[in-house]
């Protein structure tokens, strides 16, 4: 009966029996037993380092050992009641903030430290004494070889890449629709709304991945409270950010030129809010499924969750934006109040999501303190959107449209993986405010790729994926006969140089930013990825615009390919 409380049964009966041989934590021979659900879990299982699988099994067995025990009269407490009591005690407890002396409030990073019980709970002195002898040794991060890491990353990376390619092809088509031709400020919305996957989806994936790795989702009650609270929080943030992105588009697009049309402004707000709300809900459900599935199959969610979060995020968001914008544009004359009603409906749902998200302490904390990175990232992405709007307005640079989601999406995906991995490492080994020895002192770029830290090899692997990944995506666009640019050698050289420079800068910024945020007591899972993906959008769009301008000046130009 106890296997269902505090420990998923998949950790007790793994579909693969793993034998360790050679060095601990490395790859070894694997003997896979037949599984009734098909060959897909077995295929994923072969990509899992034995150290990670062993960690998950030890956590599951430890949770069973910590189950209810009979007292002196032979009475055994009901495990369901015990779990509910522990959850209530856990929610009721607070921790001392690092920034306020004596001010007591919930801190998201505190329960994720390896000390204490597996789910971050503290028991009575008697319970601690009884559990001390049964508690496994302090857990360490399982070591991954570069091959194991690449195998886990490459499939979701390619899937996410093809998603951005599809988004670029959709954007190349819809740029000729009436709504996009006559309300060009919609292009300013594109990076900001596509950036929601970095502001919200990837942040959610990183938070839940860390929660899985440190054992916070072993308890079913805590797991679903964490999931529901974070999904509700994400809907609040998506609605607010969608509205603010529309305001930024109005300011950046129309005010400097002295042009303003109220019906167009309302259409922008309606399309932005509706797109952000619907796309965020769909991607949130997909993200939760990926995290739970990774947990059950033993795959490290840090390696797969953030790329899959973006795999179809760009395509879904762009398709919804184009459909809603064109539909509302067609209704401007016949139903002038349609845009206002749509905007008011989605904004009216915001208080409902706020009430739901306030029920869980972690999401309640972020409901009040998590707006700075999300809004700042939206402003940064909007500046990239302004660059895209001005570039698309130049008929000589029309080919940039199809490649913008690709270079922005790939850069954001790779840096999100690195940020999530560094954050998980810090949650395992360091207290908030304290950083490892290798991260102290002044930052220098060589530390990211050649240092002695735990994540320099992942930075090398991610940087090496840039060139082959972009070559595959470039030829996919070429084979689909999309875009307005011929794949000449000079174009490919300039494009790949821009993509490589973008990812190199992002990985360096991530290494500096994550440690800096941890040193200041902020949780990088909630604060770093929005900044990094927004910087990826800005750097990608700016470098791509400069590349196309350079190609035009040297004579490598054509604007009618794919028409």
Q: Could you list the spans in which at least 5 consecutive residues all have pLDDT below 50?
A: 1-41, 43-53, 61-138
- In round numbers, the mean pLDDT is 74
Distance between the amino and carboxyl termini: 64 Å
How many strand segments?
4
Q: In which order are the strands of the major sheet placed?
A: 1-2
- Which H/E pattern describes the elements? HEEHHHEEHHHHHHHHHHHHHHHHHHH
Question: Given the C-alpha coordinates, what overall shape results?
Answer: globular
Describe, in plain words, how this protein is organized in 3D.
There is one protein chain. The protein has 563 residues and is mostly helical. It has one domain (146-554). The protein is built from 23 helices and 4 strands. The strands form 2 sheets. It has a two-stranded antiparallel sheet. Strand 3 and strand 4 (104-105) form a beta hairpin. Helix 9 (196-213) runs antiparallel to helix 12, helix 10 packs across helix 17 (371-392) and helix 18 packs antiparallel against helix 21. The radius of gyration is 25 Å and the shape is globular. Residues 78-92 have a biased composition (Basic and acidic residues). It catalyses: Co(2+)(in) = Co(2+)(out); Fe(2+)(in) = Fe(2+)(out); Mn(2+)(in) = Mn(2+)(out); Ni(2+)(in) = Ni(2+)(out). Keywords: Cell membrane, Ion transport, Magnesium, Membrane, Repeat, Transmembrane, Transmembrane helix, Transport.
Fill in the keyword field for this structure.
4 strands, 563 residues, 23 helices, two-stranded antiparallel sheet
């Amino acid at each position: 009966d106890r296997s269902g409380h505090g420990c998923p049964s998949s950790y007790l009966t793994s579909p693969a029996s793993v034998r360790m041989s050679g060095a601990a934590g490395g790859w070894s021979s694997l003997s896979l037993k037949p599984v009734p659900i098909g060959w897909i879990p077995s295929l994923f299982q072969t990509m899992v380092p034995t150290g990670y699988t062993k960690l998950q099994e030890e956590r599951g067995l430890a949770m069973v050992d910590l189950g209810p025990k009979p007292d002196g009269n032979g009475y055994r407490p009901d495990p369901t009641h015990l779990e509910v009591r522990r959850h209530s005690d856990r929610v009721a407890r607070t921790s001392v903030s690092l920034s306020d002396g004596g001010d007591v409030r919930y801190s998201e990073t505190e329960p994720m430290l390896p000390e204490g019980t597996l789910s971050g709970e503290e028991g009575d002195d008697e319970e601690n004494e009884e559990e001390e002898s049964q508690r496994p040794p302090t857990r360490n991060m399982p070591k991954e070889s570069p091959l194991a890491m690449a195998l886990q990353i490459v499939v979701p990376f390619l899937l996410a890449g093809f998603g951005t390619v599809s988004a670029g092809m959709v954007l190349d088509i819809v740029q000729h629709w009436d709504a996009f031709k006559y309300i060009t400020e919609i292009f300013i919305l594109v990076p900001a709304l596509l950036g929601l996957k970095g502001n919200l989806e990837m942040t959610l994936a990183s938070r839940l991945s860390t929660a899985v790795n440190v054992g916070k989702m072993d308890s079913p009650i805590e797991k679903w409270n964490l999931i529901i609270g974070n999904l509700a929080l994400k809907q609040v943030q998506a609605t607010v950010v969608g509205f603010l992105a529309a305001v930024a588009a109005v300011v950046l697009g129309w005010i400097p030129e002295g042009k303003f049309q109220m019906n167009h402004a309302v259409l922008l707000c309606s399309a932005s809010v509706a797109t952000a709300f619907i796309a965020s809900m769909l991607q949130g459900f997909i993200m939760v499924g990926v995290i739970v599935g990774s947990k059950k199959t033993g795959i490290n969610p840090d390696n797969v969750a953030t790329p899959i979060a973006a795999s179809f995020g760009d395509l879904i968001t762009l398709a919804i934006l184009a459909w809603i914008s064109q539909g509302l544009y067609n209704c401007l004359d016949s139903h002038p109040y349609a845009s206002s009603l749509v905007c008011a409906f989605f904004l009216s749902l915001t208080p409902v999501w706020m009430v739901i998200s306030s029920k869980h302490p972690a999401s309640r904390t972020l409901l009040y303190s998590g707006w700075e990175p999300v809004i700042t990232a939206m402003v940064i992405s909007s500046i990239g959107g302004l660059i895209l709007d001005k570039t698309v307005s130049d008929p000589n640079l029309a080919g940039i449209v199809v490649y913008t989601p690709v270079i922005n999406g790939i850069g954001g995906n790779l840096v999100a993986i690195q940020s999530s991995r560094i954050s998980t490492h810090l949650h395992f080994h360091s207290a908030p405010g304290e950083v490892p020895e290798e991260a102290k002192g002044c930052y220098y770029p060589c530390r990211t790729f050649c240092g002695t830290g735990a994540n320099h090899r992942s930075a090398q692997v991610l940087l090496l994926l840039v060139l082959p990944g972009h070559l595959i995506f470039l030829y996919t666009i070429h084979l689909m006969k999309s875009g307005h640019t011929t794949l000449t050698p000079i174009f490919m050289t300039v494009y790949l140089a821009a993509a490589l420079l973008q990812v190199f800068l992002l990985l360096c910024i991530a290494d500096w930013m994550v440690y800096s945020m941890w040193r200041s007591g902020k949780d990088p899972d909630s604060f770093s990825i929005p900044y990094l993906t927004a910087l990826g959008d800005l750097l990608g769009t700016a470098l791509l615009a400069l590349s196309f301008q350079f190609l035009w000046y040297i004579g490598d130009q054509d604007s009618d390919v794919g028409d």
